[in-house]
Amino acid sequence: MPDPAGGIDPAGLIATLFQAEAARLTSLARFFVDDRTAAEDLVQEAFIRLSRSLDRIRDAERATAYLRSIVINLARDHNRRGLMSFRHRPPAQPDEPSAEATAADLESRAEVIAELRRLPLRQRDCLVLRYYLDLGIDEIAATLQISRNSVKTHLQRGLRTMESSLEARQ
């Protein structure tokens, strides 16, 4: 959002981005951290860091990619510190009381997420951004600050690994 002087209106940009992206960013963070509260905290921290760096952002359109990148890096740091490890994930609490109707779906989703978390970081990042946030190759490349070809390679390798791992489970 431009301000009258021709630059970026910081308050307007942060408010607009928060309204448009906070829920998606929280969903993104949930693939990397174990509980919703931690994911929400990471997203809030990402917005704080973005607001501190707005003077360096020349193109408001790139702010969303920058936010996604911050969330992914914060989630990695969160797990490195051992606050809640993927390997020590508590059992998921069902959102619906009728768990019988969705048991098969939840089990297959849990298997996919477990396999996703076993992938190397870049493959995981690319797959989550592509298939859970529906980002295109260019958006993924901008978010992770890697080339388009690297994104394609990581997607291919990650899908191949997940496919063989999931097939071996059956």
UniProtKB/TrEMBL annotation:
Residues in RNA polymerase sigma-70 region domain copies: 17-81
The keyword Transcription belongs to this UniProt entry's keyword annotation: yes
Keyword annotations from UniProtKB, A to Z: DNA-binding, Sigma factor, Transcription, Transcription regulation
UniProt KW Thylakoid keyword: no
GO molecular function terms listed in the Swiss-Prot or TrEMBL record: DNA binding; sigma factor activity
Domain RNA polymerase sigma factor 70 region 4 type, residue spans: 111-162
Pfam family, one: Sigma70_r4_2
Name of the protein: Sigma-70 family RNA polymerase sigma factor
Lineage: Bacteria, Bacillati, Actinomycetota, Actinomycetes, Micrococcales
